[in-house]
Predict the structure.
Amino acid sequence: MEEFLLTLESSNPNAFKTLNTTIKTICAVPSYRNDRKFKQVKGAKNLFEIKIPGIRLYCFSEFLPGLGQSSLIIAAYGRIKPKDKQQRTDIRHADKIRNDFQSLREQDPEIEYLTIPEDEN
Amino acid sequence: MQKAFGAPLDFDQRVEMEKLLIMESILARMDVLKMKRKDLAGAMKVSSARITAMLDGKNNFTLETLMRAAEALDCEFQSCLKPKATSPGGIAEGTSVRHYDFTAHSTETKRDETGFSVDAVAENDNVDAA
């Protein structure tokens, strides 16, 4: 994920800025309604896509005790200019990350991030 | 990465955020009125594509567009300039602030140069408590 964001920041700074603004706006509103920017992925529970032109970033929300009342949007997977087939693969991948993260949190509620092995990234 | 996401938004980003927040207000009101996007387009006398552009944050709202949206949503349009906390006459975040015109005031209450009246300013802040 970090590699995706770093690549985007260097290759397309304007898109990175837009993504940054969009994420902050989504977080600033208790129940974000604009489905042109943020919508639930069909068939995947608690998995959402952040949409900016040419970019899809999949994420889910989770209550993190360290941050108090607010839920945090956790970036699960992202891709620049995805094609339909890639999007389906990305959604499966993001859903697996979400499941893995939530399983780990059941064991240890203090966990705030998941490290993904290089070959799965 | 944390630095990039943690940095305050620049002017262009703040403009983009405000556009998205305006659309959120519009969408929230549409929910209350059970109004669909094509209904809003019709009531505002604009095309559906224009509503889509607004949702995408591509639309540069004019005052007329905002007032058309307000009318279409049976709302009154209000605008507000609030001095930044660091600006002369600015008010620190967390302070209870009401605009003078919305404040039930006695004749002794005076409007300051910002146009805001301040209910209470924290004294003896306990910085250790934070």
User: Anything to note?
Assistant: The first strand of chain B starts at residue 97 and ends at 99. Chain B touches chain A at residues 1, 4-5, 9-10, 12-13, 16-17, 20-21, 23-24, 27-28, 31, 52, 55-57 (CB under 8 Å). Chain B has five helices and two strands. Helices of chain B lie at 2-6, 11-33, 37-44, 48-55, 63-72.
